[in-house]
Design goal:
Layout (H helix, E strand, L loop, with lengths): L1 H16 L3 E3 L5 E3 L4 E6 L6 H5 L6 E2 L5 E5 L4 E10 L5 E7 L6 E6 L7 E3 L14 E6 L4 E9 L4 E4 L1 E5 H36 L2 H20 L2 H6 L2 H9 L1 H19 L6 H23 L7 H21 L3 H24 L12 H91 L4 H26 L5 E3 H15 L4 E7 L2 E3 H22 L5 E10 L2 E8 L13 H13 L3 E5 L4 E8 L3
Parallel strand pairs: 1-6, 15-17
Antiparallel strand pairs: 2-13, 3-4, 3-6, 5-12, 6-11, 7-10, 7-13, 8-9, 8-11, 14-16, 17-18, 18-20, 19-20
Helix pairs in contact: 3-4, 3-11, 4-7, 4-11, 7-8, 7-9, 8-9, 9-10, 10-11, 11-12, 12-13, 12-14, 13-14, 14-15
């Protein structure tokens, strides 16, 4: 009789606390939590065997989602019983619908020695689903009781259990991952777009915005579970989770820098100084959170306060007719709502995902698009300002050009008068120099007529021709308007005619002169030509008929002067004290900066090469 009472009590307990959820083969999805019982283990030390002895302490649950906030100091045990209400075996997938829970352990009541583990700190390497999953099999008209133990070391502890038909689950999973991939792809495109704009514009606001988007993606790729199955191994996931304050803080810090730069907060000194204080305190606060776990509870308060301050600053800037503030305001409100919904969901206050599964992703994309539009609008606005500035500058330049044209005209007239006066003065100077030289030549000629010594008379004649060579240059400069260049043909012709009159010889002279000379080069060439022709007349032909060829050519920027006579030549190996040849070498090498080559094997051929830049 006592045994029957025990059986009855156990049956009653099982009926009250373990009412099974009936499963059929037509329903693809069940919410498990409303059919579950919950036990809170504040000791965090109970095993599955301990829990089986606490059946009466489990509490019936009627919620679809349980949120216990960030890093609660207890374990949550979930118990549920499933009954196969069909005449055939069925397989199902239990999905733990939260990818960032630290540890999850799954037990079957009759196989408590076998535990399946999952969660961020125990990720199954073969799992390719966003959330942890467990496979079960129910025999016809049989029931099974299951236990799930869950805890969260750092992240929010959110419990939501789904029971899926396998086919429906994988269909849902593919769509879910596709939507998340589209979200991350969109964010990457926006980040690259703004990064390229930064490279072209060098506007630091774009770089801060790119860092903000990267921070959001880094946070979200871990938050939704993408990182744990595609990018990071178990060890790296643990490191990232331990640095979760930094991961959350990074996009908020970048957003603050972006707002400060984009809104030009320097024009509002008090607001700007307060934000600077926030930015200075920010890294110190994060460091304190990392080294002191008790400060984690203040993390969200600090972050949300900064977001509210950014919104307040943006509202003030919008009130001050700051065009960029309108865009930032919409974006900040969107992201703030997203963060608030995330917090409410993790705290178990309000599950936004039950009504709008992708509201966080849509809010982030909406905010990113709004900010990108704001940046694009800024470019357009700056372009309009640039165009207006160009118009003003063009008008100013036109006025300035007109003013300068008037001044230039006046100055040109003054310069023309001054140049005319200078030209007249230079002509007069050349005329007087030429007259003075002619006076000197006349005096030398008069003095030479009284000299009977032929050698001395020849010296006087040579001096006379040298002075004439310089005098003829000044005569040409006096006659022409351009005082920088001399027509070589006319100048050489005057020199040679002067020499021909000085010597009674039968010599034909042939000219091939096709260029002009600078005034400085012309006087050196005139003296050289005077010496060479005089030597030819005196020594080359010995009272017989002779020929002299003179050529002057310019190739590119180089000159070539050739003087050739078909006379008797001379022995170049024999020492010569001729002042004339010393003068020729000196003028060619030192004054013209050129090279001289003399060949006397068949007559005398003198070649002189120099550059016009010398």
């Amino acid at each position: 009789m006592h045994f029957l009472k025990i059986i009855f009590i156990l049956f009653l307990v099982n009926t009250i606390y373990a009412k099974p959820l009936k499963i059929d083969d037509k329903t693809a999805f069940y919410d498990l939590l409303p059919s579950s019982h919950i036990y809170i283990d504040k000791t965090k030390a109970l095993t599955i065997h301990d829990i089986k002895n606490k059946q009466q302490e489990f509490i019936k649950n009627d919620k679809k989602l349980l949120g216990y906030g960030y890093s609660p100091d207890f374990d949550v045990w979930v118990k549920f019983t499933l009954f196969n209400n069909t005449d055939k075996s069925i397989e199902r997938t239990i999905e733990y619908d939260n990818s960032i829970t630290s540890k999850i352990e799954f037990y079957e009541e009759k196989q408590t020695h076998t535990v399946l583990k999952d969660g961020l700190f125990s990720i199954n390497s073969k799992r390719k689903t966003i959330n942890p999953t467990f496979k079960i099999k129910l025999h016809p008209y049989k029931s099974k009781t299951y236990y799930i133990k869950t805890r969260s070391h750092i992240t929010a502890l959110i419990v939501k259990l789904n029971l899926w038909n396998n086919e429906a689950f994988y269909e849902k999973e593919i769509k879910h991952q596709l939507y998340l991939a589209l979200f991350f792809g969109s964010m990457i495109i926006l980040a690259l777009y703004n990064l390229f704009i930064f490279f072209f514009t060098k506007d630091i606001s774009y770089l801060y915005y790119v860092l903000y988007i990267v921070g959001l993606m880094l946070h979200h790729v871990i938050y939704v579970g993408f990182a744990s199955i595609y990018f990071l191994n178990q060890e790296w996931i643990i490191h990232f989770i331990e640095l979760s304050p930094l991961i959350v803080a990074f996009p908020i810090f970048a957003l603050a820098l972006f707002s400060k730069s984009f809104l030009h907060l320097k024009q509002y000194p008090k607001l700007n100084n307060i934000l600077i204080v926030y930015l200075v305190i920010f890294p110190l606060f994060l460091f304190t959170i990392i080294i002191n776990d008790s400060m984690h509870q203040y993390r969200n308060i600090f972050f949300i306060s900064l977001l509210f301050y950014l919104i307040s600053v943006t509202i003030y800037a919008a009130f001050k007719k700051n065009r960029q503030a309108y865009f930032i305001l919409f974006g900040c409100v969107s992201i703030l709502l997203a963060f608030i919904f995330m917090y409410l969901s993790s705290a178990g206050i309000f599950n936004i995902y039950e009504h709008f599964k992708y509201i966080i992703e849509l809010s982030l994309i909406f905010e990113a698009i709004i900010f990108s539009i704001a940046l694009a609008d800024r470019i357009n606005h700056l372009q309009k300002d640039k165009e207006n500035a160009h118009k003003k500058l063009f008008a100013q330049q036109k006025n300035e050009q007109q003013r300068l044209e008037i001044k230039v005209t006046e100055k040109t007239k003054d310069l023309k008068v001054a140049l005319d006066e200078k030209g007249l003065l230079l002509k007069e100077l050349n005329h007087r120099v030429k007259n003075n030289m002619q006076t000197i030549v006349s005096l030398i000629r008069l003095q030479g007529d009284e000299i009977e010594d032929e050698k001395l008379h020849d010296i006087f004649l040579t001096i006379q021709n040298r002075i004439n060579a310089m005098s003829h240059l000044h005569e040409l400069l006096y006659k022409q308007d351009n005082l920088s260049y001399v027509k070589a043909y006319e100048y050489f012709d005057l020199i040679i005619e002067e020499i021909r009159e000085s010597y009674d010889t039968n010599v034909d002279i042939d000219f091939d002169i096709n260029t002009e000379l600078k005034m400085e080069q012309a006087i050196y060439c005139g003296l050289i030509l005077n010496e060479l022709i005089s030597n030819s007349f005196k020594y080359a032909f010995e009272n017989r008929h002779g020929n002299i060829n003179i050529s002057l050519d310019k190739v590119d920027n180089d000159f070539q002067l050739i003087v050739y006579d078909d006379g008797i030549g001379y022995n170049q190996n024999k020492p010569s004290n001729s002042l004339g040849m010393v003068l020729v070498n000196t003028l060619a090498v030192q004054q013209l900066k050129g090279k001289i080559n003399i060949d006397s094997t068949n007559g005398v051929r003198v070649e002189i090469h120099w550059s016009n830049d010398a």
